[in-house]
Amino acid sequence: MSKHRILILGGTTEARHLATALADRADCDLLLSLAGRTAEPLAQPAPVRSGGFGGSDGLAAFLKTEKFDLMIDATHPFAARISQNAAMAAKRTEIPFFALRRPGWERRPGDRWTSVASVAEAAGVLGETPRRVFLAIGRQEAFHFESAPQHHYLIRSVDPVTPPLGVRHARYLLATGPFEEEAERQLLMINQIEVIVAKNSGGKATYGKIAAARRLGIEVIMVERQEPADVRTVGTVEEALALVDHLFSPEMNRGV
User: Which UniProt keywords apply (predicted)?
Assistant: First the structure.
């Protein structure tokens, strides 16, 4: 039996679950690509490639050279650059391609959300009056808040923020989810947090802070997603597996 070569652009829980399901299949030859930005990544169920490709051109060349039959973008909803490069590479090579993207969170009664288009915009929305801010956006874009040095920041990330922010008041918390609502509520209360800056990542693992903010009446500055246009997208691992079956079905291979 010939195997279908599949490249999964990963780094999320969904990518790991999808790779686990496909790794058990006799008809699939799988490679999981990770950005390599996490110091201690979790063990993965399939062969792993770590690091970038050199933009969309490099990714297109890799797809062609390695003779992949399918590419799946299962990166973080805010990994905009790799998602854009993947869409461009797929179009250039005409290799079947889709994205596995968990649905974003939706506003509920009691939520005090201010929606913004970027982390940089979130920094400006905080205002001039000093506030106690919980930054729950990871480490890579925390530097934007150096433009608002008057605030007191609590910054949570998986890996250290390096270099530390050039602001007077900043505390750093290293932690890996999932984060439960009650623990998040205690964190917000103990640190007297007045506003949270978060990305609309979706999923359950980091929703605890959003639910806790609702209960406490705390404002959330929510950075919304900027999805690539014209990319076929599914929302669950089950839907992704069904689409893989469809793309590799005899009917599709015959062009029916």
Answer: Cobalamin biosynthesis, Oxidoreductase
Note whether residue 141 is domain-resident.
yes
pLDDT (tens digit, 9 = 90+) per residue, 38-69?
555 666 777 889 888 999 999 999 999 999 99
Q: Where in the sequence is the domain holding 134, given as residue range(s)?
A: 113-223
In a domain, 108, yes or no: no
Query: CA–CA separation, 11 vs 37, rounded Å?
Result: 10
The tens digit of pLDDT for each residue in 162-192 reads 999 999 999 999 999 899 999 999 999 999 9
pTM of the model: 0.83
